[in-house]
Structure formats: C-alpha cells, structure tokens
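Appendix C reproduces, verbatim, an entry submitted by the partner laboratory led by Prof. M.T., so that reviewers can inspect both the input and the predicted structure.
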Amino acid sequence: MATREPTKPRSERPFAALHRDRWRSHMKNPSSQVALLTECGRATQRRFLADIATVMDTLVSNMCLRTRKIGSAQRNGFFLFTWQTIADKSGLPLWRVKQCAIRAIDNGWLESTQPRDTRTGESNRREWVCLASIKRITFKYLTVMGLKDAFSAAHQAAAKALKLKSERWNKPVKYLLTPITLLAKFRRAKQQLRAAAPPN
C-alpha cells in the first residue's frame, strides 16, 4: 500500500504551529522575555518585534526538519529559499526581512552562509559569483523558544518521510539534502578534473 504524501501546508504542521504559538505567548508580554531584549537589556520596539516574529515563523515553517536549512528537498537536490522568497511568503518587504534577519543572526538564532562559485564572464575570464545563501535555524534558537524536545521528535519523524522520498525518486538521502547549487558546482568540478586527467 502506497504511503500518501502530507497534504497540509508546511506552515500548518505540528512543529511550525507550536513555534507560532510560542511567539503568540511571548508577544503578550515581550519585555518579560530576556531573549527578546536588546543587547543593552532594553525592550525591542513592538512593531519590529512583530516583524521578527513573522520572519522567524516563515523560516521555521519552511525549515527542513532534518538539517534545519530553509528550503525543500526536491528530486534534483535541496532547493534553497532566497531572501526574496522569504519576503514573498511572509508578506513583508525584502528590506524589512533582511533587517529582521540581521537581528536574528546577531541573537544567534539564525546562520546564513554565502557559498561562491566561479563562472566565465563576458570577457571570457573566470570570475567569482555568489550562490544562494544557506540559511539555517540554530539549536540556540530552538532552546530559547523551549522547542528542543519538540524538534527532536519532529526530526525523527522527518527521517521517515525523507526515506520515502528517497525510495520513490531513487536518490540517496544525502543527495536530496545537498543544495542544488552546490550539486551543480560539484559536477562542474568533477568534469574539469576528468578533462585535466592524463590519458591512461
């Protein structure tokens, strides 16, 4: 008997809903939450805090529960969500999303790394280009929000769903969790290595 794919939007699944509920609770009296204060110990402007909550909700709702990366596992690899995608999903302007992300990164709630690759430019010279950034929710954030145990349970459940995808698409789990942009980079590097290898 075939296993059915989840039909609920990711934002409505239990872990995302629990995370959203924590923010609702914190927003009732944000000044009492140490994690929501500024580095100086002052209360954060309520409107800014509400937007941070929206951005974090969007990030967690679109988080891979196996890797904590923001995006989704597809047949051809892991599709990373750009900041523009996060802005579109959150309903906030891009500049505001980035402003909230900077605060989240400063708090240690979010990591964002920018991988690079080389391409041939218009002048036929190799030049560096930035690939989609890899955004990842930190364990510190999950702990601060009191979601460590809930995440552990969701993490285990996600392994089963990912295994089913792996079997259906006939792709290794590791492949499905590797960003598409990095897979393309690795393929090019492998092809270049083969081309440079001396004949047998």
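The helical segments are 14-28, 46-61, 83-90, 94-106, 139-144, 148-169, 173-176, 180-196. Additional entries are available on request from the coordinating office.
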